[in-house]
């Protein structure tokens, strides 16, 4: 198991291979289909710095944050998967979620030096490994707002790296 701490260093990403297991600690972003298009708009119009979080070296977890905890949503939903390339270009290094990504998304991860990690849908386990949460933007979206959470050793498996996918047949 490789222990990773946010912000994620480029050399850590280069060392990861499909199928590696990792644990992630530190502050990570949480967003899913309702918020990711808004985050992309902030990147495009230059207002993303207003969030007070540097996207370079950051992790984004495709989830909502609710009183029940956090658990991955399907990363291959249109609004989520279409955000992966531009967020990687903006500096996100690890995308956490579940499900198979399209080959062009896997290639985009490689192009921008990012990886996709599959996280098991285990809300209770992840809740115990989350120590702080705060709404970073779009509070009107409730549990689907952009959240920043502090995690300790979130388990994940690298699902796509360096142009390869764990789902390849």
Overall shape: it is: globular
Beta content: 25-35%
CATH superfamily: Fe-S hydro-lyase, tartrate dehydratase beta-type, catalytic domain
Order of helices and strands: EHEHEHEHEHEEE
Distance between the termini: 25 Å
Mean pLDDT, as a whole number?
92
**How many strand units?**
8
Content-based structural category: alpha/beta
Total number of distinct structural domains: 1
Provide a short characterization of the protein structure.
The protein is of the alpha/beta class and 169 residues long. The protein has five helices and eight strands; from the N terminus they run βαβαβαβαβαβββ.
Description:
This protein is of the alpha/beta class. It has a single domain, classed as Alpha-Beta Barrel (fumarase). The chain contains five helices and eight strands; from the N terminus they run βαβαβαβαβαβββ. The chain has a five-stranded mixed barrel. Strand 4, helix 4 and strand 5 form a beta-alpha-beta unit.
